[in-house]
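fyi for ur records
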Amino acid sequence: MKEKRLVPAAAGPAHGRPGTHLSPRNWPAGLRYLTSPEHSLSLTAVELSALRTDPTCPPRATTASRPPPSSLVRIMPVAAPATHPALGQRGLFAARDLPPDAHVIDYMGFVHSAVDADPRSTYDLSLDRDLGIAVDATHMGNEARFINDYRGIRDGPNADFRDRVEAGERRMCVFVLPLGKSGRGKRGIRKGEEICVSYGKGFWRDGQAEHDADLH
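which gave:
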């Protein structure tokens, strides 16, 4: 994902710190690497309950038991093609063959309500639109924040975002596209291939993926 200029995490909203871990290769200096979501202290009991007890979000097969950094993906500098919209920045690539419908990685970041929303953020992924809960990876996150939009890279996405329950809590995560009736996604994602999604209005708070690039 293209990355805008970062400001120190200390300048952001109040939060409680989860465990961190040795960051993966090519992780930007000054950006916190997370192994679990970080929750805003402003989240109400109702909002926390919605995150942790939603019966409409069933458990899925997961790779979360593998210790971070993820062994399934690599953050890599984008060197080609010349038309790549994130050329000279970073992208997320498969470290091994990933089969159709496989869980790849959870999208980690700062879980917040509208109270702490940053209108300038382009890393804010919605978790509950009715309550205005989202997860923002601007100042902290994991490998998933480097997923680029497919436009200008390939004919279509090879992965998507889906709800999943992990450790009793709703999360947004990245899955390889399923087979589909048309055969879309039938080969999964090959080792070394860039993982790409569609930046759709159904997930991104402001529906925009274009922003000033700096470190990504």
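The radius of gyration is 16 Å. thats all i got for now
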